[in-house]
From TrEMBL:
Taxonomic path: Bacteria, Bacillati, Cyanobacteriota, Cyanophyceae, Nostocales
Bilayer disposition of the protein: Multi-pass membrane protein
Coiled coil stretches, renumbered: none
Organism domain of life: Bacteria
Protein keywords: Iron, Membrane, Transmembrane, Transmembrane helix, Transport
Protein name as it appears in the record: Ferric reductase-like transmembrane domain-containing protein
Compartments where found: Membrane
Length: 168
């Protein structure tokens, strides 16, 4: 397969959104899978700014989708549009809900439901992997390869963490 080295700004924003999203997931996995670095400054900072990173991931994804909509003249009033990018649309809606509820007020109001809601962030890992495979099929570029590797490593870390939580 030939890999393109040029990347459009829309795609680059999708990539930046994915990177930011991965940073929100890392601290919980590191805490269990690599306990020796759980107190490292970088891990502590990722944990501290997790909510802000989640909001940024949503903003980047929104601009990514916006640029694609403009560039491809997508008709937002055509239901077919949402069917074609079902996984992207669902992820974007989930990112929006998580971003809007990433504040102390929501934690207080939603109580135990907040944790349940925010656990749905893990579903987005699979949706994004599906999104990349589906949308980039047959025309991978250099960042697509990095995205697939990073998403796969993130998912493996997630399963390793769940396994350790269960059996240790
Ligand atoms: C949280 C939501 C989203 C994330 C994190 C995301 C992320 C990405 C990423 C990482 C890529 C691959 C870029 C590359 O390898 O060059 C991509 C491609 C793409 N995304 Fe999204 N995306 C999201 C939502 C959406 C939505 C809502 C749409 C619909 C407008 C969309 C449309 C596309 C399209 C059409 C491509 C393929 C671009 C191409 O053919 O070069 N994405 N997205």
């Amino acid at each position: 397969m030939l890999i393109d080295t040029s990347v459009s700004s829309a795609n680059l924003l999708g990539f930046i959104s994915l990177l930011t999203y991965i940073l929100t997931l890392l601290p919980s996995s590191i805490r269990i899978v690599f306990p020796q670095i759980k107190k490292a400054k970088i891990t502590m900072n990722l944990l501290k700014y997790r909510r802000q990173l989640g909001i940024l991931a949503f903003i980047f994804a929104l601009i990514h989708a916006g640029l694609i909509i403009v560039k491809r003249n997508v008709d937002l009033f055509d239901l077919q549009t949402y069917k074609i990018s079902l996984e992207g649309t669902v992820t974007l809606i989930m990112f929006a809900i998580l971003a809007v509820t990433s504040n102390d007020w929501s934690i207080k109001k939603m109580k135990k439901h907040w944790r349940k809601l925010h656990k749905s962030t893990y579903v987005c890992m699979f949706l994004i992997l599906w999104h990349i495979k589906e949308k980039m099929y047959g025309h991978w570029n250099i960042i697509t390869l990095i995205e697939i590797i990073l998403m796969t490593v993130t998912i493996v870390l997630f399963f390793r963490r769940r396994w350790l939580e269960h059996y240790k």
